[in-house]
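Ligand-bound model needed. flavin mononucleotide.
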Amino acid sequence: MMKRFPYPTGHDVPLFLAPMAGVSESPFRRLCRGHGADVVVTEFLSAEGIRRENEATLSKLRFSADERTIGVQIFGADPMAMQEASALVTDLFQPEFIDINFGCPVKKVVRRNGGSGCLKDLDLVQEVIRSVIRGTHLPVTCKIRSGWSEEMRDPVAIGLRCQDAGVKAIALHPRTRTQMYSGRAWWEEIGALAAALEIPVIGNGDIKTAEDAYRMWRETQCAGVMIARGSYGQPWVFAQARALIEGRVPLPTPPVAERFAVALDHARMVQAYEIDPQGAAIEFRKHLGWYVRGLPHSADLRRRLHQVNGFSEVEGIFGDYLAAAARGDFAEDGLLAAACSATTSADAERPGIAHE
Ligand SMILES: Cc1cc2nc3c(=O)[nH]c(=O)nc-3n(C[C@H](O)[C@H](O)[C@H](O)COP(=O)(O)O)c2cc1C
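Prediction:
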């Protein structure tokens, strides 16, 4: 039986861009929506910051109409603060849903029982959920890990408690907090949760390619699929996954000039959104590194991209690389064209993970 999502999804099996601090910001969310993500979620925002109307926190809540369907993710372990944050987000920003973060493993957050810290106390989890629901007329969802520790690992018990408290969908990243990002995500736990709950379960974890997304959906029967790191530098992964789910042959990974064009598109969106252009360009360096991952002779290209201080520099650097390729400068390393159309592996390089 198909489980209904509490917000518009566009497709029966929606594809989600995961919340990622410092990555899933408004421009990247817009880009991924344009490339086939059905639903996006903001990075996690502190309930305390929202209720105190902290300027930096509120600025991260800005989004544009073309990002919808969008959820705003909040975290905190103080039920009152969570209720107030939920009310404020609803009044000021009107997303389609509010998502609660019960997955963040970082010390600064779990020390105060926020994020996955809540998973040590399922009464608290339920209290937080009920408070957030009291603050809003919007549907409330949550994102969980499989438990606080290996001893406490029980995603089905956690999911049942969340469902009982009133959430309308759950995303599961099947690792425990103690695992952080090590080991593999246990997809079989996504399957078990999907079978146990009446609400839709969104599967997440270790999707590096469109094929992985398709395989997760088939193997676990999850209602939706959420991609985090697998979207780095390859937003087209969503369109490719959609094709596989619909039984079509996906478009190949774009050749290098097209990849650069997507990166420039992304850069233009960042420029239009951010107030401090130089700071934004420096922040954007990581995305540039992801877009050129796996390209032949990319050492110099990456070095130059990692030094940009303004967006105007990027086009010239890409242009130089394409000109060198056209001159045949990279010929001794084999066919550039072949390398540039090869599927990128999101696994090749992963930056330090700071948040969840
Ligand atoms: C840089 C980074 C930031 C993240 N920030 C958040 C966050 O704000 N909220 C959240 O629920 N999860 C966050 N996560 C966790 C991801 O949403 C996801 O659960 C995890 O990366 C596993 O999925 P993946 O294997 O597709 O990357 C973050 C992950 C990364 C890598």
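Residues 256-341 form one domain.
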